[in-house]
Write a structure and sequence with these properties.
single chain, about 325 residues, alpha/beta, Peroxisomal Thiolase, Chain A, domain 1, 2 domains, 5-stranded mixed sheet, 4-stranded mixed sheet, about 30% helix, binds oxa(dethia)-CoA
Length: about 325
Amino acid sequence: MYNSKIIGLGHYVPDNVVTNDDLSKIMDTDDAWIQERTGIKTRRWIAEGSEDTSAVMGAKAARIAMERAGVTNKDIDFIVFATLSPDYYFPGCGVQIQEMLEMDTIGAIDIRNQCTGFVYAISTADQFIKTGMYKNILVIGAEFHSNGLDKTTRGRGVSVIFGDGAGAAVLTREEDPTKGILSTHLHSEGKYADKLIVESPSIAKWVPELMDNPEDISYFPYMDGTFVFKNAVVRFSEVIIEALEKNNLSKDAIDMLIPHQANLRISQFVQRKFGLSDDQVFNNIQKYGNTTAASIPIALTEAWETGKIKDNDLVVLAAFGSGFTWGSVIMRW
Ligand code: UT7
């Protein structure tokens, strides 16, 4: 059995910056409410007429990650793509990446685990590398939320939170068992699927049915924010503890925690719970909002780019979101 480790990171966000004041011009909201409840100051939304999509942004982030990793399209053995906002109902974005990056006819899968998507994607890639089946795997998280949000006062509890963007990582085989990914931990609780959901169009409720019922807005995301928040703080903490215990490590061993950027208040709660300093937790939700499967790889990339992650650091990734799903990755950089 091998370990796997990240050898290249990249991210891409659209140029178009949307401020809280911009939102207050199209719905009943204000900068003070958004900042106080979420920490968000701006987010990126793909501009009208742009060619960016989840797959296109994912490919842009992937090119940067691959260049930094020193690998070419010929070196990648497999693609794992996490998104809840794919370009097509099917096929998934993974196969688009195979085409866009002119790769050989390698395998590609999509992961549908929303805010926990990147953690699930990393865990999936890790298993393939551990067994020796693949050596280099491209893992991408990307979201194009802005086209699917209810940008009226009716949808303000959700739409002010989400942003567009993509992040990517190249994982490779690591021979040293004390380095790279030490363990990953995945969970789900489907009884709360309806607490954060985009219900349609689905095969059960296809497009013509929606068109016949203009009142039906189940194609917009629905979130029971308070319920999700309460579960998030508990599950984030649990799954970080699970990762530490599995590796006989204490919370003092954490050098860098990258939480999924759901809400700054959630990150701050977790930071306090584990007694971590501001230097030990990376947040960028203030700039990008919640980019779901892209949030961890974007944050991880920025933490690495700014020198906040160094060789031998213990890095923990943790996420919680729709499903419910939650999970963690613990690695020795
Ligand atoms: O990433 C996946 C996982 N997602 C999360 O973890 C998100 C978890 N939940 C949250 O982050 C928070 O619940 C929210 C930020 C979504 C909402 O914050 P909250 O403190 O739970 O607010 P609330 O939903 O209880 O709403 C409080 C008030 C309501 O008005 P009333 O009923 O008290 O008069 C809302 O209508 O705030 C109102 N409100 C807004 N006001 C201004 C809701 N959205 C807005 C808005 N601007 N955008």
